[in-house]
Amino acid sequence: MILVCGIHGSGKDQYSNNLKLKKDMNTYTASQLINQTLPLRQYKTKKIDQIDSRQHILLETMKEIVLHEENFILNAHLCLINEKGEVERISTDVFKNMPITEIHLVECSAKEIEQRMYRRDEISWDIRFIQSFLEEEKKYAIELSQLLNVTLSVINTSSDNKKNIILPIAPQYIEKILSGEKKYEYRKRLCKNNISRMYLYATAPVKGIVGEAEVIGKLEKNPKDLWNLTFQDSGIKVELFYKYFENYSRACAYKLGTVTRYANIIPLHNIGIDYIIQSFKYISDI
């Protein structure tokens, strides 16, 4: 079970939905499972009553899921706002009784969460309260990952945290990247920012993000030197390389590391993009 956590407004719902496509797993939301038995009385304020009782209901409900599914995603919180308006941790015993194999913590800047909460729910939270909420959720996520001996991944959905790019690539070359045959993606120009991940957008007829690749370097040389350095892992023929860089004095490439193939295609509209990407697009974690 992958536990996706994060405070209100962090973007964990969208991340969970995308993770469902990447992993081909069912996604369950803790609040929805609990509300089937014990409806929440103060949803609009985000204050939660009967925190312990509600978590007991969650565990009982999950027993039925575990009987039929070995791998699934649970979208939940590690900390909640109690009836006094204070941030309260959910008991460690609750998480000990879950079959957690990974924890994914979804974060966002306090300022952006403030804006999202007002825009979505018309809730006005003090920026200092949001920051303390973020810090407590992260601190608890680290502690739980160590206690349960599971990996912790931190995903940042802040709009100003654009450390990744979406790159349109023809499907036949994406297949070579995903198979490990192609470890360099050639371009006539590179993005200026330092990036850590490339989302592989397969162009027509696929039209969707089919995987991702770690970016471990950016190269820029004259075409001959670049080919001599990269040809063994180029995934293309020399004729195609020189035709692509014809009349160019400089040739560029992204050096790729670990690659991941998604179980399902993620359409661009799933991540709020409603236009065709021509060159590349900076983006936060998805």
UniProtKB/TrEMBL annotation:
The lineage of its organism: Bacteria, Bacillati, Bacillota, Clostridia, Lachnospirales. This is Uncharacterized conserved protein. InterPro entries: P-loop_NTPase (IPR027417), PUA-like_sf (IPR015947). It holds the Pfam family AAA_17. It comes from Dorea longicatena.
